[in-house]
Description:
heterotrimer, B: alpha/beta, Rossmann fold, 4-stranded antiparallel beta sheet, 10 helices, 10 strands, C: alpha/beta, 2 domains, 7-stranded mixed beta sheet, globular
Amino acid sequence: MGPILAQILTGLANAGALFMVASGLSLIFGVTRIVNFAHGSFYMLGAYIGWTLMQVLPGSFGFWSAILLAGIAVGAIGAFVEIVILRRVYAAPELFQLVATFGVILIVQDLALMIWGPQDLLGPRAPGLRGVVRILGEPVPKYDLALIAITPLVALALWALITRTRFGILVRAATQDREMVGALGVNQRWLFTGTFALGCALAGLGGALQLPKGGADLLMDFTILTSVFVVVVVGGMGSLPGAYLASVLISVVGVFGVTFLPQSTLALTFVVMVAVLMWRPFGLLGREEVAGEMGQVGPPEDPIRPAGWPVRVGVALALVVLAALPLYGSGFAVILATDILIFCLFAASLHFLLGQAGLVSFGHAAFYGGGAYAAALLVRHAGAPMELALLLAPLSAGLLALGIGFVALRASGVYFAMLTLAFAQLLWSLVWQGGAFTGGSDGLVGIWPARWADPNAIFYLLTFALCVGGILMLRHAAHAPFGYALRAARDNAPRAAASGLDVRRLQWAAFTFAGAMAGLAGGLFVFAKGSVFPNELEIARSFDALIVVFLGGVKTLSGGWVGGAVFEAGVDWLTRFEYWRLTLGLVVLFIVTIAPQGIVGTARAFWARVQR
Amino acid sequence: MSALLDVRDLSRHYGALRAVDGVSFELAAGDVRALIGPNGAGKSTLFKMLMGETRPNSGEVYFGGARITGLRPARIVRRGIGRTFQITGTWASMSVAENVQTACLAHDGRTLSILPYARHLHRERAEALLDTVGLADQADRPAAVLAYGDLKRLELAIALAGEPRLLLMDEPTAGMAATERTDLMETVTRIARETGMTILFTEHDMDVVFAHAERVMVLDRGALIAEGTPEEVRADARVREVYLGVGLDPEALADA
Amino acid sequence: MLRRTFAALTVSAISTIAAPLVAQDGEAIRIGEINHFKRMAAFAEPYRKGYEMAVEEVNAAGGIDGRPIEVIFRDDQGEPGEAIRIAEELMTREGTVMITGSILSNVGLAISSLADRQGWVYLASEPLADALVWSEGNPWTFRLRASTYMQAAMLAEEAAKTDAIRYATIAPNYAYGNDAVAAFKEVLTELKPEVEFVVEQWPQLFQIDAGAEVQALERAKPDAIYNVTFGPDLAKFVREGGDRGLFDGREVFGLLSGEPEYLEPLGPEAPEGWVVTGYPWYAFDDRPNAEFVSAYETRWDETPKNGSLVGYMTGLSVAAALREADSLEPDAIRAAFEGLSVTGPVGEVIYREIDNQATMGAFVGTTAVEDGQGVMVDWSYRDGADYLPDDETVSERRPSE
């Protein structure tokens, strides 16, 4: 009995910081509909600021006020970010704001490195709470008990704030019906700022509170992000009691997982998440999402037209010039162009899914990495030639998408996005723990192109043909009946269904098609690099593609590949500088604020104005 | 000849609320019938059940002699039922003609094709349908810029593209100017006469109902309380009570 | 064919631009260094400083036959794919003659595979994976730092001297952790067949649930614990384990736990009595080691880390190989590395011909807390050559040669 109780207490203590960070994210999403990728960064800032304050403020009083002040400081930083950046992009397509939050992540990473240095900081102990008490003979750290007590207090305070104050009533109203708040004449701007600041303050509080259990380090922003996403989704986006329930559930399951299935640490939370969402597609306490138009808010795009002859001739010429790159470009230019082309196809495939089908996937890397691994495994274990591997990579990725889509499309909106993320993570953990078969984190190396395609110039031409072919195919599909049917389902799903379109089957087909195309890009990647590692399945890879699609412009046909080319080339150039993450973050924010329709969208709007 | 649509004892409950409660009726081919009733009477729920968008708790629907209860909307549409929505449903990112062309493609079942250019398919048929509803001159404008009345017409063309044998129209003239209403309903009834299409529509405007429906059904709190010719329904004491008692549109009934 | 022509063209173009810029002695010899300077700043920065210091010393002493060494540092974000592209750029456009670097094993493996394909020399300075010189080893890749196997073997040797029979292991759930546990088990079981491994814990890298891990270890009632966690995971593990009394009365063996990178952040809470591998820079009285430490402190105004030593040795190795080689062609540099002897602060290090692994060793000692800071006491330097399997086993594990 003792050990079991002790484990439950450990789980409850772990739930503390997780709940605070998750409830902040949940609040922000509920009111502003922003999926705040930077939430982990605010958590990290809370830890660092808390650490600094604890060095200055003495004693028990100093310790606890440092935690509180850290929360307040991070809240202020959050308010600053909201006012200076996010406010400018609320009118942009939904989820576009996540690009801005991505820029914030990059900036915070470099600033934290500049201010606090590269070394991990050990969290100070809570005065008077060092050591353990024995409960049924089991040692339980005193600070754990403090956390177990504090968390419900914070939750209660939050609950009181939400139910008893005018601000809280507005928050709840906004979570349930955004237009209504606007109609009530409430100053929506300050409501959003207030909510964002409160959410960030909670993240900062979480970061400072966990200091005595660990410390502050530069990787903690990303390491907590996935767990927080899981908690928010399992609990139900926008539901505070849900967030508490889910953080306890995930933490306690995690603790027992460590004991009884030590190898399970990677996959367990995601298995729980998929199971919960299969049972309750909107999380434990979430409501059905009303805002169904993911990525499509704002004025509808103009009807698309196939390019006219002058444009086609121009594009053909440009392609010829590009194809001839090995004749005039340097060896490195050819290699860089190969990488960019592959990334463009990957981005274009996600762009098709987002732009045409209106489906936002947070886990598109599952198919990119899936295709890459399919090709690599075929070569490594079946001795397949490159040609066969490149053929089977998109097929395998398509099959994978067929399977994942079957489950994920039961949900919609952000829940769909989160399910794709969960599946991508599951695949990642499978590969990570695949032992000799997948090579685990050491990956599969030594997988180079067939002899005839070995020279970089030839491989470039092969990549060029497949990627440009793939991008053109995706583009043409938008003009074909498939594209029209998808846009019909996206613009107005009930109308589409009443016209005999099977909306879910169409989305499923689009998901599979996009997955297969990402798989082709992944297959090419393996042979370009000669190796593949689980990095290609990571969340960061999915985010890269997502950012690029938004940067390029969702409501355009070329946004995917244009964004991909600009981003990949930009990163290659920027990483030559010392503080490249800071620079890249600022550039991203700059683009986001001056060009909320993305690069292509804004260029088109500009061109239209010039013509008039 | 058996009825085109045969609804038997159809019910849908939400907890204690009986949105639709044991409704039965038949429609013969070529009927133009109105379904009226105060707000919350269950008209929209009934439509949703007929289209397969909502599952009934009990009861059955037969269409053309075959049971369609529990089929998915796309399957029911294939059998020959079409509808228009109270909140007008069109596809904003396409041109007017493309809206109708897409509906034609959906009717064809060619929607997974990625080879041809869709804008060249069914263009003539779309133009003919737009001509029928009086939108031919706006074929190449983006649907997003249409006036409200034109959107209603466009949706009618979209629905007609599916060549339905039965067309359900949920408040087809809501929000339109009086002259537009008459225009639209005349177009609809003309098409019904010409093609033998059956029409079931809900409507708040009693002028429209009494001018265009051959027969009228009255739904109140989920149950059918009257059915007959416009004159019969107008004279029905319970109907008068429902409308006058509830206070919705009493003047409309009185005016008529 | 085509590629080589282009490579030649770019190299000559860069050389002509670069020539007037360098010192009067002659044109610089360029070395490409690829590392995760941002993502793993705590480890990469000291490494870079050590490396730069070695290069400065070499250049001050006249460089390589009058030509200075120039190192081009590039950040790969910790992404193998990026590292590959940067390697290509360095070798084909920047005119570097060889590649060094990486901490993460997967990045090291990716560069190594490219080096093998292109016939470029790669000195994997810091990555620890055994695969780098064994299962995925190739003639073009050399590795400097004592590998996972070597360091685990050093601890296993110490473990065999104790009375502990029941062992528990805790290692991050990825290739390094797996290798480290496997090597420790292999060597310890050989030295002392009666030991048993009662529980293996595999926390996720940098996401350890320390409380739960400690409870799971305690539940198995081991005599000894073998720890492979590092960085923030180690801090959390040490804290929870200390609070809950996990380490009381148990032998603990910590791989790398004595390296300043990991020990210093723990401050006064550093564990006491653990047997660890590490780098006791504060305790040297022998000349070469002490001289390096004071030179480093003078140059950078901070104390050295283990990475500083590895970086310094990297610079010395590169210089030694360039001196030894009769040309700057990759093949000549590769040949020079085979059997190359480099003398640095820790003594002589030899790049073994049999598997391209350098014999650089590690310091093994016991942790203690002195003046509020974790240190290693009773330490000694173990020569890496003594902790590698016999030649026959090595050949079996290295299929490429």
